[in-house]
């Protein structure tokens, strides 16, 4: 690395690539490339990472705080912004109580900032409720792991992509969504079977050895039927089940109803396909299951994830190289949010409802136990419900854009109009959400501050400061810390005065937990090792930097055993009808697009890689029947509203199904607001819609 080259961790997806950024003497970015020796990306980076910093120099960057006046948002000093935040939040607290203010955070900021935010808001300002946009991407996986393994602990390391001989992707499209993980798949030298369960013939499915285009939302039934067949044929590892699990007999009894006949009827696959899939699992010596949003964003995401975990357990495909029931997360620091955001979990993977945990955390932080709530926050959707009902009067939104991304978007404007005070902290004042704020706080981007992210394989990666933020923009860390000082949160916050200090606090909090990171010295240690996976406790040497969990067959429940978790499969809240005969699927459109496009939408090179305006993919049979050709203008309607889009006729979608990328603001004017009952994750993949040519 040259003198003018710095490295940092990419802040888009959960792969966690490390990037070298070359700067000229004036500090202008000249070139970005993947770090060759970093064990995640091995020198590679996708188009988003290679253009990481371009959105940071956009003219749209926020450089000063803005306060709403009758003429719109007007610049104010930081002193006025901080004072306004504190006085208005305090007034609302005083009048309506501690449940009247809340925050919505993100998987995009470093763990130290998440922890500071969750701690200041809850222990300092007295808020009870705060959740993250991570609820929208992987909450179902969290609940699935906690129930099955006793802790939210994904088993795998990326090396498993290379060591598996049978990899089964369910509702996952890594060729588009996680291109560098997909690169690891392509490095597999075992002539591995790549099996894809997805209604669409995605780029991943096109490259697979086996694609099973099952009907939307039939994955739970299919997986139960496969488990049933494996048991009927004796293709299970009884020794492993007896030694390491609880609940197998109950699971076995439960799935006897999931016959081949039922699975063919519900999934649309024929019996040969289901038998073939079962045989492939049996034949594999190292079988791995991988899932993302196609599973998590479902009305039964938790149980679908657990159906894969159950098959992995009963076939002994866990804790060995190339195996596992493996959730791939979405955002760069979704995994950090799971452990350190202080929202669903108390800091460090502790439990708000556990008095012993509250005592431990209070002692480490040197605060009164009474400051720690004895219950977790309301989930995201319930926070918005309480806003709608007028119970929550003030909302503090950090680095997320719900005015674009919320599942029931038609209702969002009405919901936020009920607020007395909306604060948005973001790198841009031009996001759909920032534009409607009462107070906007300009934040630094990820390459402009310090901290760590945790990627999908539990690896802590250093996010280092490469550039200065523009104007008066501050890191989220500095903004939150200054708010805490202005609020008067007390002397205890003095120990939290820098990301480095908070990193040491988080290490201390993790001691003795499954996510113990006491063995990681500091940021320099992360840099020296190419990131470090948790756990690494104090006495543990780093013998390998590609470590998986459960190799000793011990899980995190007190008896050391994993649980078989299951429930009956259920019909989604909305199904197709004569009025709305199409099933709408949503997902990532291209490698070049990221979520609501607040950053990728500002990079000309990326914008050339996808259609600027919203489009809908439909099957040629449906197109012919409706007289639609590619590029025709069409209207898609659900019972929540309608959207005009350009038609894209393709055999990649099945008859009766439509696909619209999630990146366009109008998409979520169609989606149906159903939620998994255990994770409260929105079910973005199931809405019934109609389609017609415009002017028909
Ligand atoms: Fe960044 Fe993900 Fe692309 Fe890697 S794969 S460069 S982490 S967006």
- Structure summary, number of beta strands: 26
- Helix run count: 25
The shape is globular
Output mean pLDDT.
96
Low-confidence stretches: none
Helical content (DSSP H or I, runs of 4+)? 25-40%
Major sheet size, sense and barrel closure: 7 strands, mixed
> What strand line-up does the widest sheet have?
5-4-16-15-14-6-7
Secondary-structure topology with pairs:
Blueprint lengths: L4 E5 L8 E6 L5 E6 L12 H4 L15 E4 L2 E4 L2 H19 L4 E5 L5 H14 L4 E4 L2 H15 L9 H5 L2 E5 L3 H4 L1 H8 L6 E5 L5 H4 L3 E3 L6 H14 L5 H7 E2 L1 H7 L5 H8 L3 H13 L3 E5 L1 H4 L4 H14 L9 E4 L6 H7 L14 H11 L14 H9 L5 E5 L3 H4 L3 H8 L4 E6 L12 E4 L8 E4 L4 E5 L12 H12 L11 H12 L12 H7 L2 E2 L28 E2 L18 E6 L16 H4 L7 E4 L1 H7 L6 E6 L2 E9 L7 E5 L25 E7 L3
Parallel strand pairs: 6-7, 6-14, 8-9, 8-12, 9-10, 11-20, 12-13, 14-15, 15-16, 21-25, 22-24
Antiparallel strand pairs: 1-2, 2-3, 4-5, 4-16, 17-18, 18-19, 21-26, 22-25, 23-24, 23-26
Helix pairs in contact: 2-21, 3-21, 3-22, 4-15, 9-12, 9-13, 9-15
The chain binds iron/sulfur cluster.
What does this structure look like?
- By secondary structure, the protein is an alpha/beta fold.
- The chain is 32% helix and 18% strand.
- It contains 25 helices and 26 strands.
- The strands form six sheets. Strands 5-4-16-15-14-6-7 form a seven-stranded mixed β-sheet, sandwiched between helices. The protein has a six-stranded mixed barrel with strand order 21-25-22-24-23-26. A five-stranded parallel β-sheet has the order 10-9-8-12-13.
- β23 and β24 form a beta hairpin.
- The site of iron/sulfur cluster has 13 residues, from α1 and α7.
């Amino acid at each position: 690395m040259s003198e003018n080259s710095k490295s940092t961790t990419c802040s888009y997806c959960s792969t966690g690539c490390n990037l070298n950024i070359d700067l000229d003497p004036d500090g202008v970015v000249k070139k970005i490339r993947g770090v060759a020796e970093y064990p995640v990306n091995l020198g590679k980076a996708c188009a988003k990472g290679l253009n990481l910093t371009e959105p940071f120099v956009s003219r749209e960057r926020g450089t000063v705080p803005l306060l709403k006046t009758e003429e719109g948002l007007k610049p104010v000093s930081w002193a006025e912004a901080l004072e306004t935040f504190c006085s208005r939040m305090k007034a609302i607290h005083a009048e309506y109580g501690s449940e009247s203010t809340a925050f919505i955070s993100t998987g995009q900021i470093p763990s130290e900032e998440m922890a500071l935010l969750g701690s200041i808001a809850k222990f300092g300002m007295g808020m009870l409720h705060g959740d993250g946009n991570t609820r929208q991407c992987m909450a179902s996986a969290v609940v699935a792991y906690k129930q099955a393994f006793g802790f939210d602990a994904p088993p795998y390391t990326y090396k498993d992509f290379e060591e598996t001989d049978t990899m089964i992707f369910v509702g996952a499209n890594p060729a588009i969504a996680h291109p560098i993980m997909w690169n690891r798949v392509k490095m597999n030298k075992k002539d591995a079977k790549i099996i894809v369960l997805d209604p669409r013939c995605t780029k991943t499915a096109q490259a697979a050895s086996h694609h099973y285009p099952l009907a939307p939302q039939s994955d739970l039934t299919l997986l139960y039927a496969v488990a049933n067949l494996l048991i009927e044929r004796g293709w299970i590892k009884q020794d492993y089940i007896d030694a390491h699990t609880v609940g197998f007999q109950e699971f076995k009894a439960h799935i006897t109803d999931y016959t081949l006949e039922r699975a063919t009827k519900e999934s649309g696959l024929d019996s040969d396909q289901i038998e073939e899939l079962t045989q492939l699992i049996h034949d594999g010596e190292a079988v791995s299951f991988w899932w993302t949003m196609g599973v998590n964003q479902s009305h039964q995401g938790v149980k679908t994830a657990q159906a894969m975990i159950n098959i992995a357990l009963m076939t002994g495909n866990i804790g060995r190289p190339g195996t596992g029931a493996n959730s791939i997360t979405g955002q760069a620091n979704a995994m950090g949010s799971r452990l350190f955001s202080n929202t669903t979990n108390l800091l460090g993977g502790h439990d708000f409802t556990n008095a012993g945990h509250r005592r431990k955390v209070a002692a480490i932080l040197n605060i009164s136990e009474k400051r720690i709530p004895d219950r977790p926050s309301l989930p995201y959707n319930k926070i918005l419900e309480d806003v709608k009902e007028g119970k929550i009067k003030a909302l503090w939104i950090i680095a997320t854009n719900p005015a674009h991304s919320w599942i029931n978007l038609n209702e969002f404007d009405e919901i936020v109009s009920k607020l007395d005070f909306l604060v948005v902290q973001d790198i841009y004042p031009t996001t759909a959400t920032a534009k409607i704020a009462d107070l906007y706080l300009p934040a630094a981007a990820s390459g402009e501050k310090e901290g760590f992210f945790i990627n999908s394989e539990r690896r802590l990666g250093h996010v280092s400061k490469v550039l200065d933020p523009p104007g008066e923009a501050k890191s989220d860390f500095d903004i939150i810390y200054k708010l805490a000082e202005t609020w008067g949160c007390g002397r205890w916050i003095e120990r939290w005065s820098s990301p480095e200090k908070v990193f040491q606090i988080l290490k201390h909090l993790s001691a003795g937990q499954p996510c113990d990171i006491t063995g990681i010295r500091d940021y320099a240690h992360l840099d020296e090792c190419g990131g470090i996976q948790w756990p690494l406790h104090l006495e543990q040497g780093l013998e390998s930097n590609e470590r998986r969990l459960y190799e000793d067959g011990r899980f995190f429940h007190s008896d050391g055993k994993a649980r078989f978790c299951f429930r009956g499969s259920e019909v989604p809240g909305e199904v197709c009808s004569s009025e709305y005969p199409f099933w709408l699927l949503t997902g990532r459109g291209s490698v070049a697009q990221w979520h609501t496009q607040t950053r990728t939408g500002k990079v000309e090179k990326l914008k050339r890689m996808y259609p600027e305006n919203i489009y809908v993919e439909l099957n040629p049979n449906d197109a012919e029947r409706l007289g639609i050709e590619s590029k025709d203008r069409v209207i898609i309607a659900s019972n929540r509203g309608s959207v005009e889009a350009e038609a894209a006729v393709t055999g990649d979608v099945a008859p009766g199904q439509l696909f619209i990328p999630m990146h366009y603001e109008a998409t979520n004017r169609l989606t149906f607001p159903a939620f998994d009952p255990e994770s409260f994750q929105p079910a973005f993949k199931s809405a019934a819609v109609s389609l017609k040519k415009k002017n028909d």
